[in-house]
Design a protein that fits this description.
Blueprint lengths: L4 H12 L11 E3 L13 E3 L4 H11 L4 E4 L6 H14 L2 E5 L11 E5 L2 H7 L6 E5 L15 E6 L12 E5 L6 H10 L4 E5 L8 H9 L2 E5 L9 E2 L2 H10 L6
Parallel strand pairs: 1-2, 3-4, 4-11, 5-10, 6-7, 6-9, 7-8, 9-10
The chain binds NADP nicotinamide-adenine-dinucleotide phosphate.
Length: 248
């Protein structure tokens, strides 16, 4: 289950390690949110499965033995479905996810529990806010229309974001601290809102906010299912090679 750098790295390692030589196959699953996902060295399928039952049916029909949930830490519905479907279908299951970002000296983070918490935290005077959230939850911020919002999306959206006062940058990264700092400065950003995604690809905005002394509203991660977890792609590969269908 992909849509992340970790999933793409695991797919590359699986292809390189001669899966077919060992009679094994891998399929990478995308939700289909990105118009042009990166090309992958293993077969790809796209779209939802239809809940836990749909995924369990898929796992059985494709005779899947191992399920690696390498979805984004904020893709909580998918992760809970994956854990439940793996249990139902008797498939070994592991989560491959990134460690959370930790505040460093100089950071001015305010933690909130979810998108609604971030929206509520924006009550008050007009600011220039970088909403570094991806495109899915942006419209919730229409409830705080007094702010100017800087948005950055992977694709140009078919429908304009529902925010009265915004600027949109289309860029899929990877981003640098210097680049993000210049972007924030050129848009006069004075507050950053982001999700604690973890990982290197999107970390630059935090370094840029630190360098500029900007406050950050940090949306903490949703709860994840009770499951075997690794942060290490190589370890996920070892798990695939060495554990049987019961995950031991
Ligand atoms: P979500 O809310 O947890 O999932 C909603 C539904 O989308 C799931 O129930 C499932 O539909 C389908 N789905 C999600 N991931 C899928 C996958 N890899 N393959 C097939 N179906 C999938 O997920 P989300 O937050 O919308 O994220 C969607 C995708 O974008 C994920 O693959 C995730 O890795 C990636 N992504 C998410 C974020 C983020 O901030 N949320 C950031 C970067 C990348 P069914 O119930 O019909 O099976």
């Amino acid at each position: 289950m992909g849509g992340t750098t970790e999933a793409s790295r695991l797919a590359a390692l699986l292809a390189k390690n001669g899966l077919a030589d060992r009679g094994a196959r891998a399929v990478l699953s995308y939700a289909g949110r990105t118009e042009q996902p990166r090309a992958q060295p293993v077969p790809v399928r796209v779209g939802g499965f239809g809940g836990v039952a749909g995924l369990a049916d898929y796992l059985r029909a494709e005779r899947v033995t191992h399920l690696v949930d390498a979805t984004h830490p904020f893709a909580a519905t998918m992760s809970h479905h994956a854990a439940a479907a793996a249990r139902v279908a008797g498939v070994a299951h592991i989560m491959l996810t990134r460690p959370e970002w930790q505040a460093q000296p100089g950071d001015r983070w305010r933690h909130v529990g979810d998108i609604e918490g971030a929206v509520a935290a924006l009550a008050g005077e007009a600011r220039r806010v970088m909403l570094a959230l991806g495109r899915m939850h942006v419209d919730a911020f229409a409830a705080q229309p007094q702010h100017h919002y800087l948005l950055r999306f992977v694709d140009r959206p078919a429908v304009a974001p529902g925010l009265a006062d915004h600027a949109l940058v289309v860029d899929r990264g990877p981003f640098t601290v210097a680049g993000d700092r210049a972007l924030m400065e050129s848009h006069g950003v004075d507050l950053v809102v982001c999700k604690n995604a973890g990982g290197a690809g999107a970390e630059a905005k935090l370094g840029a906010a630190r360098a500029l002394g900007l406050p950050v509203i940090m949306i903490d991660r949703p709860a994840r299912p009770d499951a075997l977890v690794t942060h290490d792609v190589q370890e996920a590969l070892r798990w695939l090679g060495h554990c049987d269908q019961r995950g031991v």
